[in-house]
Fold this sequence. Notes:
Blueprint: H1 3-14, H2 17-33, H3 37-40, H4 42-49, H5 61-72, H6 79-88, H7 91-102, H8 104-116, E1 119-121, E2 124-126, H9 129-136, H10 140-160, H11 164-178, H12 182-197, H13 200-229, H14 234-245, H15 256-271, H16 279-283, H17 290-318, E3 322-324, E4 330-333, H18 339-345, H19 351-359, H20 365-396, H21 402-423, H22 428-452, H23 454-469, H24 479-482, H25 489-493, H26 495-506
Antiparallel strand pairs: 1-2, 3-4
Helix pairs in contact: 1-22, 2-8, 2-15, 2-22, 4-17, 5-13, 5-17, 5-20, 6-7, 6-15, 7-14, 7-15, 7-17, 8-17, 9-10, 10-20, 10-22, 11-12, 11-20, 11-21, 11-22, 12-20, 12-21, 13-17, 13-20, 17-19, 19-20, 20-21
Amino acid sequence: MDFASAIMTIDNLLWATPLIALTFGLAVVYCIAMKFGNVTKAKLQWNLLTKGSGSEEGLSAFETFCSVAAYRVAVGNIGGVMVAIMYGGPGAIFWMIITALVTSAIAYAENSLGQIYKVRMDGQYRGGPYFYMERGIPIKWLGKLMAVIFAIFATVGVPLLVTGPSANNIAQAFELSFHAPRWIVGLVIAILLFLVISGGVRRIAKFSTIIVPFMTIGYLIITIIVLVGHASNIIPSITMIVGSAFNTHAIFGGMIGGAFSYGVKRAVNSSGSGFGETPPSAAAAETPHPATQGLVNAFSVYIDVAVCFCSGIMAVVSGCFNVVNADGTYMYIGTGSSMMQELAESGTANVTWVQEAANSVIPSIGGMIIALALTCFAYSTCIAYYYEGESGLAYLMRNANEGTRKKVIWAIRILMPIMFFIWTLVTASTAWAVSEIMFALMAWFNLIALLFLLPNVKKVYDDYMKQRKAGVETPYFNPEKLGIKNCDLWMDINKDLIDEGTAEHIQ
């Protein structure tokens, strides 16, 4: 067995039914614990998103929201959706949407935990799965062990390994639409990447607040143009997606198993809910209550859902998609582009499908626009990946002096762009497999931690909603009142509010 085959085998083993079942099952449990507040509190989430400001130590809610959205909206929202359609049929789009909405409960849980157990370090707030594993899991030795292993995954795996699909898809897109050599594309993007990450969390946050709204709105506009160009196919396409999801479509009936499994897998890979990617950014926010940032960052899943749907509907409505049987033969080869036959012969499912969908309405230019959109998605994601690596490294070196810690962080800032350049030259299948292996390992550790910490997440959520119902203008977190240990920083952050509340209670 060669290296590529071995990587694919490991990937398939880690992403087998147990992990999919754990992710979806835990998401449902958290939905119930929150009384489905993750999907019924959209108005509240929006209000929280647009309020609040930063400080010298923390970022504003909107800045952290955009940083988290940068994680979620990535190449998986385009290339990953195409992989799901190829192996699960159009019905996979439906299950991707359902899964993303359900797993927003996990997004709430992990982001609120990032806030609950955050610390002050080097003049800023730091948090993440390693902190809530060590401080929150009641079995101390297990929590510390899980924290160290996860921090290593975050430090090495995220900035250096999971950037593969982003680098590879950018190179592919520019090669197809602009005929640019991959190595030149990789070199230019790597330099641009370094220019942003060298400025640390504040430069990353400022950049994210500009690029995330721009790239999302732009992608929505190109989707509308494609839909207008294929207006007569919109209703049949939606019928096909729903029919394929429930075994009622004439061509894609019988694919419900593949539609569900690939829909869930790609949705989880796309949104990152459960991977523990976003808590470090969430922890950087300035807020009086952890539930606030949990709700705000859970809202970012809606952006992920929207972009996934845009990618899927463009491919389906234009006929630029292929679907394979379980035995590897094709049950459907799209007729929306002459390239679909060529892509079927090479077994390719990636951003090219969406580029051809756009080209079907705006010849040549459409594919270029998608290439630029993909670059924005992938570039912003890689910047967010860097911050996760920096936060993991900060945890591992928490006992070192500040000067040593900063020097080692600079090593990550230099190594990451170099690895990005290398990934542009690797085969797409290897890049995706390596990335998915890393994410699967992180998901197993993080989801197990979320099982242990369910009671604390529920306490914090219920406390926040209880305060809002009681008319408290600014709900605040008092860990001692809730019996939650190892988060003493909050007694300092909310000292004035806690003292004020105690005085009112005495009166």
